[in-house]
């Protein structure tokens, strides 16, 4: 029976965690699509800066909640995985290894399971920018949040 080493398990967890943090572009570079022929561009730029400031705060709140949720999920996954591995391996020579494997698997699953999905974190603040701009009288041509 092949088991992954603790180093491999923690490497997997690190890769999953970093992959979950990927983002398309910084919010400060996000620009909704508008028709420049029908838009007062100086007013657009002023409004865009104001709307980005609101969205940056929203993004910070999303990320904080995401990190808190991920930490709780990792701990729960670690405990459930370790207990499951120990139970499955009880009475065998591999109980300790199965408990470690279960803990590593549970941590990875906990890191991947997140109520604040990639779509929410990536597009949620962009939706705020688009809606804010629309409320200020600008006609947004792109799908809301996907400039």
Automatic annotation (TrEMBL):
It comes from the Bacteria. This is Glycine zipper family protein. It comes from Marivita cryptomonadis.
């Amino acid at each position: 029976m092949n088991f992954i080493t603790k180093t491999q398990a923690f490497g997997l967890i690190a890769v999953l965690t970093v992959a979950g943090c990927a983002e398309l572009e910084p919010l400060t570079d996000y620009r909704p699509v508008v028709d420049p022929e029908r838009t007062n561009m100086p007013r657009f730029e002023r409004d865009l800066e104001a709307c980005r400031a609101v969205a940056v705060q929203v993004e910070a709140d999303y990320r904080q909640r995401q990190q808190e949720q991920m930490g709780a999920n990792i701990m729960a996954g670690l405990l459930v995985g370790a207990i499951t591995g120990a139970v499955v391996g009880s009475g065998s020579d591999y109980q300790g290894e199965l408990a470690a494997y279960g803990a590593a698997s549970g941590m990875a699953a906990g890191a991947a399971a997140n109520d604040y999905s990639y779509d929410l974190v990536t597009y949620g603040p962009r939706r705020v920018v688009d809606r804010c701009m629309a409320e200020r009288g600008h006609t947004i041509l792109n799908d809301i949040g996907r400039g």
